[in-house]
Specification:
Helix content is 56%, strand content 0%. It has helices at 3-15, 35-49, 55-60, 64-73. The chain is globular, with a radius of gyration of 11 Å. The protein has a single domain, classed as ACP-like (Non-ribosomal Peptide Synthetase Peptidyl Carrier Protein, Chain A, Orthogonal Bundle), CATH 1.10.1200. It is built from 4 helices and no strands.
Length: 78
């Protein structure tokens, strides 16, 4: 599985959204992305790429696009 697929799957599985809805997805843009959903998403992304985000990155993980920037900081190419 390619890295972008892993990244998208983390959102789909943690938040229960469809792939077609990912591009513009933002924190609290859907009911599932509340504080609990946020932590589930972060855990899913960390598990998918075997990384451990620091606290600032977890807080900044506020959209699908911003998440791409954060994951890239951990040397994951999407």
């Amino acid at each position: 599985m390619e890295n972008m697929d892993k990244y998208e799957n983390a959102f789909v599985e943690a938040l229960g959204v469809g792939r077609a809805d990912l591009a513009g997805l933002e924190y609290q843009g859907i009911p599932a992305w509340d504080s609990v959903g946020h932590m589930q998403l972060v855990a899913a992304v960390e598990d998918a790429f075997d990384i451990m985000m620091d606290t600032d990155d977890i807080i900044d993980f506020s959209s699908f696009e911003k998440g791409k920037e954060i994951v890239a900081k951990y040397e994951v190419e999407l």
